[in-house]
Amino acid sequence: MKKILLTILSLCLSQVMWAQDYTKDVEKLLKKMTLEEKVGQMTQFTSSSDVTGPTLRGNVEKDVKAGHVGSLFNAVSADYTRKLQKMAVEETRLGIPLLFGYDVIHGFKTIFPIPLGEASSFDLELMQDAARVAAEEASAAGIHWTFAPMVDVSRDPRWGRVMEGAGEDTYYNSEVAKARVKGFQGDDLAATNTVLACAKHFLAYGAPQGGRDYHTVDMSLQTLHDVYLPPFKACVDAGVETFMTSFNEINGTPSTANPYLFKDILRDQWDFEGVVVTDYTAINELIPHGIAGDLPTAGQLALNAGIDMDMEGDVFLSTLVQSVKDGKVSEKDIDHAVRRILLVKFKLGLFDDPYRYCDAEREKSVTLSQDFKNRARKAAQRSIVLLKNENQILPLTLNNTKKIALIGPLAKSKKDVLGGWKAKGSPKQAKSLFEGMKAATKDKAELLYAKGCKMSGADTTGFAEALEVAQQSDVVVLAIGEPRTISGEAKSRSDINIPGVQTELLAHLKQAGKPIVVVLMNGRPLTLEREDELADALLETWHLGTMAGPAIADVIFGKYNPSGKLPMSFPRNVGQIPIFYNAKNTGRPFDPEKPSGYKSNYLDVPNTPLYAFGYGLSYTEFAYGDIKLSAETMEDQPITASIEVTNTGDYDGEEVVQLYIQDLIGKSTRPLKEMKGFEKIFLKKGETKTVTFTIAKEALTYHRWDMSEGVEAGDFNVYIGTSSDNVKQASFKLTKDFEASKQYNPIKSK
Ligand code: GLC
């Protein structure tokens, strides 16, 4: 009874805390602080238990006791964070608690699919739930703050960090961003199972020249506002509490020193009140960027740009006090930063109980629970994209498949399935494809195995044994792709073929004359023309996390009918990059039906990708009716677009019905189509459902040459279908111009 009463009491207390206004508390504490203590709060160091960047401060405990640290990251476990928190609370003058941060990108110990994989599910509730589980586990290990979601739109698969985001589309990235923020933060930050989320990396980090990480970003303000900004605004609308700067420059100004981003847009236009932390040593990097000659200048530029906390750089700590004395920065600006940092600590309830997240009992009880593993398996199933299924060889049925040859360097991998940014995920807990298929086949079919080759190098000596195993089987399942170590941060590739001789192994196995199901495991879109040609069936499974093996087996044996869709285009070759569905028409559009010279095309490859944004097959078929519009014209009121979708195949299944809009004529050129909605529906065999989308004029606006935001009267096409390149069409007319209510303000902060 007592426990129940205590729970009810703590729930009520947390509700009160969440709604509370902490202004007085913050001001009262701020008044007591010395300038050195304020600058200490603006300092974040990594503990040495995990390394996620180029340098290491070393003995952070000394810094904590000296009051030089406001936040630590990469320090995890209830016990270790309790030990460090005690130093801050009991050994410093004011006892201000620490914030503990960590990169909980797609799970903490129960690892979910990499975010790009999860984004293939087009299931927002599922992605919110994945973030919820991550927050439950991380908060139980003493973590208050995750450096996620990464919401960088990217159109370039050479960039290794595409694995962390939701692909090439702005609208879809915005929807996913909201889901992930809500999953991490929940609806009560004072609850001990929620964590601060962090919108990163502000801004346009996903558009480096050549897809080379940290490289220069140079683009028009129109593209910056129409393509890269909206997912961050979506995070603010979802209540995100923190932002992280990006390493890159934009048009000559590194983000970490850019007041246009962090004052004009984030604070003035969006009224964001949260904390801005730099990326790892990003202030120090203003020197190699060439806009600061020394650390004091770098620190001044960052503070004057609106940055609140210095991750690992030790620039604020070592230079700001002197910069105030030299009159280069104002203590008022430092106070603004410290207020925001203290406020999130109050919101988390850390001043009421600094040890409320350090609960070793809870850590033991929630981590890697069966419920979390079940939710991870469900997310993994739904992240799988069926790219090819010649003659419907999938799903395999065990009554006529008696011998299965499982081949390939990823077939038994328990490490690579965890993907990049695996936090504290352990291969020991992960289930390989081999384990998943073994459990699925049991005594109903014999599972043969051969590795065939490694994931890198040119050694083909394992091919012979693999061919023998294939020849003894009824069907081959070949697991090939990328190790987890070649996608993620600082993992750009100029060649995005499957590495090593894995594709040669696939070609070699064709001699067995058996159907070949290729299971891809990778952290980015790859160039797969040969694999598409050689494979009978092709499953894109990404790096699916702890429950990868069982989830892939569920799909192979038909326990789950694949429903994933690609959140990024797959180029035919690297020369096509950047290739994305919402491109412009150009003045010389190439028409493959009526090819002619002097058009915008290549001599050696079509303009289309191998697989388009939104593409993904099912074991069943879906038929689309015609689009019905509620009106042929739109003035002020929204119109609706409806369509009937029927499951005409042999399996129950899910379909992602996608809505795209084209503005045919604008003051500026407009993309051929842009996603403006989607709905994932379940249809039993033979069932028909009507899907209805609402189209409002506010969703049609864009930034013109003069940076005004609006949309002109004129003709619009509506597209609805199963993929960006497979749609039905209808049209409507917008009868009058519309100007967005909040217009772009010229760059104010210098
Ligand atoms: C890294 C990443 C950033 C991460 C941070 C802390 O350099 O760019 O995404 O959150 O450092 O590990």
Automatic annotation (TrEMBL):
Catalytic activity entry: Hydrolysis of terminal, non-reducing beta-D-glucosyl residues with release of beta-D-glucose
Record keywords: Glycosidase, Hydrolase, Periplasm, Signal
Superkingdom, natural source: Bacteria
CC per GO annotation: periplasmic space
PROSITE patterns, per the entry: GLYCOSYL_HYDROL_F3
Record GO biological process: glucan catabolic process
Predominant subcellular localization, coarse grouping: periplasm
Any Pfam family: Fn3-like
InterPro entries cross-referenced by the UniProt entry: Cellulose_Degrad_GH3, Fn3-like, GH, Glyco_hydro_3_AS, Glyco_hydro_3_C, Glyco_hydro_3_C_sf, Glyco_hydro_3_N, Glyco_hydro_3_N_sf
Residues annotated as transmembrane: none
Listed GO MF terms: beta-glucosidase activity
EC numbers, comma separated: 3.2.1.21
Similarity remark: Belongs to the glycosyl hydrolase 3 family.
Protein name, UniProt field: Periplasmic beta-glucosidase
The organism of origin for this protein: Flammeovirga yaeyamensis
